[in-house]
């Protein structure tokens, strides 16, 4: 996975949420959480696995809604942040954090009702193997997001130290077929890339976000979107 050593550093984990989800980044956090809830709900009583759970943004959210959540990540520092967040939210008994490799998940087949990954596939060096593992351990559903090849993200990607893996719709469809997944629903968003929103204050970002969603709702919006959400079912 790209940037493995950087991602596991203690100082990166400590500042991860602040750098990405403060200022205009709050709009990104809100949209991603809504995307997860839209895809996975209702979650009460369901067994859910999050791949690359990081600091536990989604695990605590789902546990507070009654899910039994397992989060797996390669970073011990990120997992510690997740445990602290679970304590703060009063849901430590409903979340299990495991340090491990998403390419070799330590769970039996069909163990979870749903498996999801956010902010993961843009760093994946072998996306097919990761997606196949997610499909193997899921009984019903796999949900994930990708950054899109034909979008403003392409330009922004040049400025990033690690870059990102970008996907075309055809590539995603091939990955789904290889992992025995069928597409149920897809949605596309953020014509302006994430990095733009993170650089500006929340109140200014809100104005740009309104314009972004207005253009995104037109016939060309899906083709310009930098992010896609893929909701699939296990065949």
Automatic annotation (TrEMBL):
One of its GO terms (biological process) is methylation. Pfam families: Methyltransf_11. Keywords: Methyltransferase, Transferase. Its EC number is 2.1.1.-. It comes from Halocatena marina. Transmembrane segments: none annotated. GO terms for molecular function: methyltransferase activity. This is Class I SAM-dependent methyltransferase. It comes from the Archaea. It is an enzyme of class 2 (transferase). InterPro entries: Methyltransf_11 (IPR013216), SAM-dependent_MTases_sf (IPR029063). Residues 49-140 form the Methyltransferase type domain.
């Amino acid at each position: 996975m790209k940037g493995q050593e950087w991602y596991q550093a203690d100082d990166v984990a400590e500042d991860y949420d602040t750098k990405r989800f403060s200022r205009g980044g709050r709009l990104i956090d809100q949209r991603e959480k809504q995307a997860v809830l839209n895809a996975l709900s209702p979650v009460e009583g369901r067994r859910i696995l999050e791949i690359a759970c990081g600091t536990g943004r989604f695990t605590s959210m789902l546990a507070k809604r009654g899910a039994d959540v397992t989060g797996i990540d390669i970073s011990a520092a990120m997992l510690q942040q997740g445990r602290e967040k679970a304590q703060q939210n009063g849901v430590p008994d409903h979340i299990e954090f495991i340090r491990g490799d998403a390419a070799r998940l330590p769970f039996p087949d069909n163990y979870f009702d749903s498996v999801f990954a956010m902010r993961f596939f843009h760093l994946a060096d072998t996306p097919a193997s990761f997606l196949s593992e997610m499909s193997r351990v899921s009984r019903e559903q796999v949900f994930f997001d990708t950054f899109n090849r034909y979008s403003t993200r392409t330009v922004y990607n040049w400025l990033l130290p690690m870059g990102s893996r970008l996907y075309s719709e055809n590539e995603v469809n091939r990955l789904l077929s290889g992992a025995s997944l069928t597409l149920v629903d897809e949605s596309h968003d953020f014509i302006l890339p994430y990095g733009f929103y993170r650089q500006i204050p929340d109140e200014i970002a809100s104005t740009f976000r309104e314009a972004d969603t207005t253009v995104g709702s037109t016939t060309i919006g899906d083709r310009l979107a930098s992010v896609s959400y893929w909701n699939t079912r296990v065949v």
